[in-house]
């Protein structure tokens, strides 16, 4: 059900406080055609109430003629900032950008972050934002997991359904997402609560078996028939199964890009307030599925680009797959066992 403006204002104030917003700093609220009006108005009001200089930058949508879905992550590549030097300059001059448009997987975002500007993405509907307001405890838990992941040389993922995936690690950094931006040049996403990295380029191998109840994004659907992915030299080389496999294969083939099949980011969820079951309760166009990405104990595997981690692979196709009931091992030690986070992992 909807939340009141008062609840959203208090949520924004908490997030902005955690993000170390100070009076006199410049906040630019980046919006587009799909930005939620209540999120926009309460973000601007909360930032102004905390003494910030507040601007709004509203940009027209792109890629709608290319994407097969209205989801903001259904077609990556060019963004409303591509070639828009005036807009980029305004964002680089801001202390904090509240991205209510969804600016991801773009060189422009990296350029803005390198200037020291902080960027916080908030694209979910207000009721999801209000339910999963980030906390300092979220940060501590995710940062600890990221430190453990950063030391690892190998991730192995197993499941009773038949998954056995080996991912050598070390080429790319461990990324922590906890829902606020408390350091210069930091990007994060409210809501979130998970840790991720990318396997060494061309090195992941094995089998990934998606079982009924696992989730495909941006399809925003629970699969009902098994999907089997064969992974070799860092790419999904086969997609086998029933109708769900056919739907996934047809969608990915529509991009006509071999890079789309590369293994992208891998990690696990750490947010107990995110729920596996909520995806079926929201309109597909109202959410981008952050509950699914963040719920505690999921193993999140993705296909597509690695430029968010400093890699060179850019592709318009990006698939996120939160999986249940997996065991995630780092250098032989469980951090997730059968979909349950190990609260005191060894090593």
CA-atom Rg in angstroms: 19 Å
Helix content: 10-25%
Shape: globular
Widest beta sheet: strand line-up: 14-13-10-6-5-18-19-20
Q: Total domains, how many?
A: 2
Given as residue ranges, the uncertain stretches (5+ residues, pLDDT < 50) are none
Tell me the series of helices and strands, N- to C-terminal. Answer: HEHEHEHEHHEEEEEEEEEEHEHEEEEE
Q: What can you see in these coordinates?
A:
With 347 residues, this protein is of the alpha+beta class. It has two domains: 5-131, Response regulator (Rossmann fold, 3-Layer(aba) Sandwich), CATH 3.40.50; 136-175 and 192-341, no CATH class. The chain has eight helices and 20 strands. The protein has helices spanning 5-18, 37-49, 85-92, 107-114, 126-131, 136-151, 243-253, 290-294; strands at 26-31, 53-58, 96-99, 118-121, 154-159, 164-168, 175-177, 187-189, 194-197, 205-210, 215-216, 221-222, 227-232, 235-241, 263-269, 299-303, 319-323, 326-330, 333-337, 340-341. The strands form four sheets. It has an eight-stranded antiparallel β-sheet with strand order 14-13-10-6-5-18-19-20, with helices on one face. Helix 4 (107-114) links the parallel strand 3 and strand 4 (118-121). Helix 3 runs parallel beside helix 4 (107-114). The N and C termini lie far apart (44 Å). 48% of the residues are buried.
């Amino acid at each position: 059900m909807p939340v009141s403006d008062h609840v959203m204002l208090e949520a924004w104030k908490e997030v902005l406080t955690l993000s170390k917003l100070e009076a006199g700093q410049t906040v630019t609220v980046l919006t587009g055609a799909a930005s939620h009006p209540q999120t926009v108005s309460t973000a601007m009001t909360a930032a102004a109430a905390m003494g910030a200089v507040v601007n709004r930058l509203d940009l027209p949508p792109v890629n709608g003629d290319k994407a097969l879905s209205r989801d903001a992550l259904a077609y990556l590549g060019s963004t409303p900032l591509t070639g828009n030097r005036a807009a980029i300059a305004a964002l680089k001059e801001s202390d904090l950008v509240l991205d209510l448009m969804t600016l991801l997987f773009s060189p422009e975002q990296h350029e803005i972050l390198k200037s020291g500007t902080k960027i916080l993405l908030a694209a979910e509907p207000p009721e999801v934002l209000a339910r999963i307001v980030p906390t300092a405890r979220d940060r501590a838990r995710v940062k600890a997991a990221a430190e453990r992941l950063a030391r690892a040389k190998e991730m192995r993922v197993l499941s009773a359904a038949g998954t056995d995936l080996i991912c050598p690690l070390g080429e790319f950094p461990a990324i922590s997402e906890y829902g606020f931006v408390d350091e210069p040049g930091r990007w994060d996403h409210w809501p979130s609560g998970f840790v991720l990295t990318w396997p060494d380029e061309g090195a992941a191998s094995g089998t990934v078996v998606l079982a009924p109840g696992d989730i495909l994004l941006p399809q925003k659907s629970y699969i009902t028939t098994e999907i089997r992915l064969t992974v070799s030299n860092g790419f999904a080389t086969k997609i086998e199964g029933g109708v769900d496999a056919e739907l996934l294969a047809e969608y990915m083939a529509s991009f006509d890009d071999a890079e789309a099949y590369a293994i992208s980011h891998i990690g696990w969820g750490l947010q107990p307030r995110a729920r596996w079951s909520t995806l079926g309760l929201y309109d597909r166009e109202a959410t981008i599925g952050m509950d699914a990405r963040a719920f505690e104990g999921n193993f999140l595997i993705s296909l597509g680009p690695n430029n968010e981690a400093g890699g060179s692979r850019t592709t318009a196709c990006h698939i996120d797959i939160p999986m249940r009931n997996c065991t995630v091992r780092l250098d032989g030690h469980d951090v997730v066992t059968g979909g349950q986070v190990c609260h005191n992992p060894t090593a």
